[in-house]
Amino acid sequence: MKLDLSYDNLNGFIFSAVKTLLYLNLSHDHLNGALPTEAGQIDHLDTLDNSGNMFSGEILSTLDNCNTLVVLVMRDNQFQRPVPQSISSLRSIEDLDLSNNNLSGEIPMFLEAFHFMEVLNLSYNNSKGMLPTEGVFKNASATFIAANNKIYGGILEFRLPKCISRHSKSKGAIHKLKLLLSIIFWASRSGSCSGFCLSMLVEEKESARTNIKFHG
Fold first, then answer.
1. DSSP string of 72-131?
2. Of the residues 7, 53, 92, 139, which has the maximum number of CB atoms within 10 A of its CB?
3. What is residue 144's three-state secondary structure?
4. What is the rounded CA–CA span in Å between residue 2 and residue 47?
5. Distances from the Cα of 105 to the Cαs of 41, 121, 126, in angstroms?
6. Is the pTM of this model over 0.85?
7. How far apart are CA 41 and CA 92, in angstroms?
8. Which strand (E) or helix (H) includes residue 189?
9. Distance between CA atoms of 205 and 195, rounded to whole angstroms?
């Protein structure tokens, strides 16, 4: 049985009323709040599309019950927190789209073991850490990670930094120090340099010295 209620401007949906669906599309229906736990308890569900709503909070921990899922689309919502461990049970997944949310944390290594995965889209989130290199991550044309600015590593085709450089923090501290020195220099020439300026200079010197020592 298939049920497509996309673009129907629903105010709510009772997931418990549909226990035997194969296909459920609730995209672009202005649904909000937490995704009900019942959504992860639909027997034999093959495709679940909740994209383009305003769901928030954590992605369902009950999704591990949906081990027949082949397509899971939750893009364009407001989901937060890391990708949950419950998704590791969805070994039949071929298409997983979690793009354009507020997901954080590291991209889970268990996604490497999804041998049937054809498309993985994690773009436009707040993920961080090392990008896995096995499974679907070996194919840069099937894995989408745009606008996750704290990700590093991965295969060469992703053109990511090998690691997150802390040297840039040192450079930032040195730049601030130079700027402050310039301000104090010109202020002293005009006779307006104060003890406050000098205390700021001492703080910036110590900060820059600490960063350089730590990263050098």
1. EE--SSEEEESPPGGGGG-TT-SEEE--SSEEEEEPPGGGGG-TT--EEE--SSEEEEEE
2. 53
3. strand
4. 9
5. 26, 16, 7
6. no
7. 16
8. helix 167-189
9. 15
Q: Tell me the residue type at 90.
A: L
Token code pair at residue 191: 């006779």
Q: In the block, which residue shows the tokens 């054809």?
A: 118
For residue 127, which of 146, 151, 97 has the smallest C-alpha distance? 151
Q: CA 142 to CA 106: how far, in whole Å?
A: 19
pLDDT digits (tens, 9 = 90+) for 44-59: 899 999 999 999 999 8
Q: How far apart are CA 181 and CA 120, in angstroms?
A: 49
Query: Which of 41-55, 130-144, 185-199 is modeled with the greatest confidence?
Result: 130-144
CA pair distance 47, 135, nearest whole angstrom: 22
**Look-up: residue for tokens 């499974």?**
135
Tokens 């979690």 identify what position? 98
